[in-house]
Fold this protein.
Amino acid sequence: QIQEKPKGGRIKASPLAKKIASKKGIDLAKITGTGHGGRIVQKDVLAYEENVVESQTQ
Amino acid sequence: MNNDKKKIVVIGGGPGGYVAAIRAAQLGGEVTLIEKKYLGGTCLNVGCIPTKALLHTAEIYEEAKNGAEYGVITDVKLDFGKAQERKKAITEQLVGGVEGLLAVNKVKIIPGLASFVSKDTIQVKTTKGDVETLKADKFIIATGSVPLMPPIPGIEAKQCIDSTGALELQEVPKSMVIVGGGVIGVEIATLYSTLGCKVTIIEMQDEILPMMDKELAKILRSILAKKGVDVYTEAKVVAIKDDGTEAKITVEMKDQTSKIIGGEKVLISVGRKINTDAIGLDAAGIKSERGRVITNDKMETNIQGIYAVGDCTEPIMLAHVASAQGEIAAENALGHESTFDIKTNPSCVYTNPEFASVGLTEEQAKEQGIDYVVGKFPLMANGKALIMGGEEGIVKIIAGKEYKEILGVHMLGPRATDLITEGALAIGLEATIDEVIATIHAHPTVGEAVREAALAVDKRAIHMPN
Amino acid sequence: MNNDKKKIVVIGGGPGGYVAAIRAAQLGGEVTLIEKKYLGGTCLNVGCIPTKALLHTAEIYEEAKNGAEYGVITDVKLDFGKAQERKKAITEQLVGGVEGLLAVNKVKIIPGLASFVSKDTIQVKTTKGDVETLKADKFIIATGSVPLMPPIPGIEAKQCIDSTGALELQEVPKSMVIVGGGVIGVEIATLYSTLGCKVTIIEMQDEILPMMDKELAKILRSILAKKGVDVYTEAKVVAIKDDGTEAKITVEMKDQTSKIIGGEKVLISVGRKINTDAIGLDAAGIKSERGRVITNDKMETNIQGIYAVGDCTEPIMLAHVASAQGEIAAENALGHESTFDIKTNPSCVYTNPEFASVGLTEEQAKEQGIDYVVGKFPLMANGKALIMGGEEGIVKIIAGKEYKEILGVHMLGPRATDLITEGALAIGLEATIDEVIATIHAHPTVGEAVREAALAVDKRAIHMPN
Ligand SMILES: Cc1cc2nc3c(=O)[nH]c(=O)nc-3n(C[C@H](O)[C@H](O)[C@H](O)COP(=O)(O)OP(=O)(O)OC[C@H]3O[C@@H](n4cnc5c(N)ncnc54)[C@H](O)[C@@H]3O)c2cc1C
Ligand SMILES: Cc1cc2nc3c(=O)[nH]c(=O)nc-3n(C[C@H](O)[C@H](O)[C@H](O)COP(=O)(O)OP(=O)(O)OC[C@H]3O[C@@H](n4cnc5c(N)ncnc54)[C@H](O)[C@@H]3O)c2cc1C
């Protein structure tokens, strides 16, 4: 499907993304979503987590 | 015509091709569709639609026959010719509809056989007998698949038919042996056994419908057995012999014994052959693997500007997959960015009761080493299923152990093929069982069982002991 | 018994009460349920289940009668007594099921009539004739509703029946006048008209099923008309007269003329009366409005520790709403935090074709001044609907104009009551049309029309001109 630019306003995230972020103490506001309408999905949270871990170990 | 328009050629007019053509036209392409035989492809002419039209007759026949239980006393006679007529009328109406839609979208149709001569040119042997040469900016290959006839000794016996033949029978045969217990085999078994034919299914694997959740497939098998269908699994057809009116099929059983089964008709439904032999993949340099065109998730082949969709690319051969890929290929061909994701893809089997599935089966979850939990709810405890006589069914949800995200939904029961959409949307939205539980499910519906199965994941179903 | 356990008393054993009782027990409560008449309440005994059981007979009867079109030649006779027997058997099985579930969950059942004597004590006149006094930590009121008999002159005529009476008829009447074209009226009209009764519906408002999307209700009305049901809207019954075998109903039409219609039976289905007269709301100090118990979204009344759920609280009188509220009340009563949200609530009408809806109707969107767009898809262009003879239906989606979030889904067509779940989940998850579009919908299913309607919101439906 055609990807659209994220729309402003409140943070949209999938239920799974929210659960993972809350369990791991990740702030959703820091994540860019790649789902429909900029929705944050599981893979975005996991990618963000990996990034943080990477930049910490560097 | 407007010359800035991108020229798009679509090869094949099945649900992959015609949908791609319409979508490409919507996005401003100048589209030509080449179809050698019939618009609508396998799906509308010899696949999805004709099977379901005949199965609907079977369903009404069965319901009318068993009507007494509901207070509907009937005397029932089958007019199979009429059922075939109605099937034909529906098919024609839908094919006509596709033709109309292509016209409205200004898609040019060339009836004929296309093959690449280079990566930007195709040749079309038109059905009128001409040869046309066409260039285009983008090509979308959607040539589909055809029934596969395996090299079983004796398969040329006159009793042997493929799915197309099975859908064209003008009378219900007395007996039918079905070689291959996949979706097509099981649906045609349902069709003819319901209408009074003695059906035997021979399946090599250890359960029918090997791609479906095994626990449910097993229940379905026992329902089929109760209705008089003989099912042999881990069994292999080694020879077929034309014995006059019947064929004799020699089957090697799992215990090494062999058995000879007679059938007035023998349906060969062991799989489908990819239909790319004639299109000149090599001339265009398109990569393929045993005929299957290789694509990425944008439906791009290795050759820039050439896309492929549907049965000719996908091990999962389903009309809705072909159409979804068709839309995506068209979008990418017209400069948008779209990717195909199989994860919301439902598989439906139009048996009675219906059988549907989306996401991971329990077997797949196990295989992939995923930590999962299961929630199950038997339809015996669902009011609407009881009313409809569908109490043998079950709903099963596979969820991730930690976050309870929905990984798979499996349903055997009335209306399962339509109810599965909830599971597909849930998986697509990365929903957990909590969101399914928070959704009010109407009473009395079979769909309530989906919520109960979600509750069962947390051991808190209401309408059964946990 | 364990004395740290919270004592919970639930008053009323319908889908609100018995579900609350089970949920409270799951969460560790010591639960007592008081029911004066029958477990399962209106829903299982004289509501949802009996109507749908009889309607299923009607559906099979109609399908068998029209079987010739599908090649199923039938000679059909109705045994309505048998249909009633089956209805009874199903009802009994489900009521027995509820009894079993309550026992498994160790809920104590006291058969009797409960009323508050103070805010922490009730008195129960047991069916055995005793009076018991009970104290509890928390109370959940779920006393439901009963048919309403409006003060129409002559309503005491012996031909007048309520929904309970209509479901108990042992023979199909020759004619029936139905006063009130809401869900119950239209479902019973469907039932008896299908079985050969001449049905006339009289509705005061300007369309039947006033809470449903008007455009679709209109289509349904014309389908009913084609099947021989006379429907008068903006019409008012002013008098009923017992005329021996028939009643004569005087109706004031919208053009001020009046008409007299005869009916062997007259169904009064103008609404339901809240059933709280006997429970002593005042003795406990519970706030109510014309009998309706007032609650917040935690299902709390104004008195701490007293909750209320279902028909006795809710203008939207539906079993699944009662059950959803029952779970929420139980959770709050046991110290959890739950709130009820009506937004995913589906409304289903079991007509043929089925009619279902979730979220905002177009009328409501307009009224609320919401900027909306509409996507519609006619089932004439849906293969499975065509196969099932459901081509008169339609799917309609109301979406927000800016973000295209799904605000309402409305369906008239085969299986609509089960298909509506997708809309409910989508609304619950605040999905936009994009997520519905991204979900692969199986082919051939009626559900494909939901995706097409979502595409139509963006004027890019595939299977119709946009
Ligand atoms: C009996 C049966 C039942 C089925 N039931 C279902 C079902 O219920 N649900 C479901 O999802 N799927 C079902 N399928 C599968 C479904 O039909 C296919 O997955 C679907 O048709 C694939 O679409 P496609 O466009 O890729 O290919 P096809 O539908 O096979 O269309 C390919 C088209 O390309 C044309 N063509 C091929 N080569 C050329 C060429 N060189 N030049 C021009 N034209 C060419 C062919 O004539 C054909 O019309 C069923 C299949 C069968 C056989
Ligand atoms: C013909 C018909 C068809 C319907 N079809 C549907 C449908 O398809 N789908 C749907 O969702 N809804 C349907 N409904 C509505 C549905 O039945 C009600 O919304 C639902 O039953 C409400 O549940 P409840 O628990 O609030 O109340 P009820 O089901 O009315 O249960 C209340 C119970 O409380 C008991 N009670 C009352 N007062 C006392 C007291 N003082 N002490 C002890 N016990 C008491 C009553 O005996 C009763 O058993 C239908 C209704 C009717 C009449």
